[in-house]
Every structure is written in structure tokens, then in C-alpha cells.
Design goal:
The protein is mainly β. It is 0% helix and 34% strand. The strands form four sheets. It has a four-stranded antiparallel beta sheet with strand order 1-3-4-6, with no helix packed on it. A two-stranded antiparallel sheet has the order 2-5. A two-stranded antiparallel sheet has the order 7-9. A hairpin with a 5-residue loop joins strand 3 and strand 4. The two termini are 33 Å apart.
Length: 139
């Protein structure tokens, strides 16, 4: 989910290794990498730096027997949209005119869920009252 940074969280199933001899195999335990871009999208390149300690072997695997990759990358990243919450801020009022049209301004909206210093302004200028009659709390 979008969080305004490029940190990618990985698991052992995110790696595919080949070139082993016999029954030797290993998994990669590196759990962080970097997205090429912080913005929402699919097929984003993810890059990981690897050290010999990031390889856990089985079946007689020894890191001394192989030239281990120092990095891995692939266009496999996905960043999904983060939901924002919008609410109306009182008071929205008008003089009775026999209709339910409500005129709103940018200050009538409260938005939450932003990351860091990100922000935006809602520019919807009309809404609808639940009732055309004079009263309070009839939104």
C-alpha cells in the first residue's frame, strides 16, 4: 500500500534461485529491498542487495561452493492505493429556498489519511440536504 517511500518488504517466496548441484538448495532471507518508484503502480522494479549471510542452505549447501549473487532485481513490485477519509465540516447553511441544493466550499471538507506533508483540496461545490425544510441536522 502507498506509504510515500520506496522500501519493499520481501519474503522467501519472492526469490527464485537456480544452478544448484544435486539436492542442494537454499532460500534467501533478505526481507527488504527498494522500489524504483514510490508511486502506485504494478510492474515496478524492485532491487535487493544480498550478502552471503542472506542465504540459508539445505541438502549439504555451502556458500563456499557457489558464487552468490550480490543483488537481485525484477519488475515485480506492486504499490496499491491508500484510502483517504472525507467528512463534512459544519456549518453548511442557507436561507430557505424550497430546494435541497447545498452550496459547499473547500473549507467544508475534512480529509484524513495523508502521508507526511501530502495534502489536497476537495473542490466539489454542491451537495444535497436530506430535506428542503428549515431545520438542524438534516444532512
Amino acid at each position: 500500500m502507498y506509504d510515500s517511500n520506496t522500501v519493499a518488504t520481501l519474503g522467501t517466496t519472492n526469490y527464485e534461485l537456480s544452478g544448484f548441484i544435486g539436492s542442494e538448495t537454499c532460500t534467501v532471507n533478505q526481507v527488504t529491498g527498494s522500489y524504483a518508484d514510490k508511486n502506485v503502480g504494478t510492474g515496478i522494479v524492485v532491487t535487493v542487495t544480498l550478502a552471503p549471510t542472506n542465504f540459508d542452505g539445505t541438502g549439504g549447501f555451502s556458500t563456499n561452493n557457489y558464487v552468490l549473487p550480490g543483488s537481485a532485481m525484477g519488475a515485480v513490485g506492486e504499490i496499491t492505493r491508500k484510502a483517504l477519509t472525507a467528512s463534512l465540516v459544519p456549518t453548511i447553511s442557507k436561507v430557505y429556498d424550497s430546494n435541497t441544493v447545498a452550496t459547499l466550499g473547500t473549507t467544508n471538507y475534512a480529509l484524513s489519511g495523508f502521508i507526511g506533508s501530502e495534502t489536497c483540496t476537495v473542490n466539489q461545490v454542491t451537495g444535497t440536504y436530506a430535506d428542503k425544510n428549515v431545520g438542524r441536522g438534516s444532512w
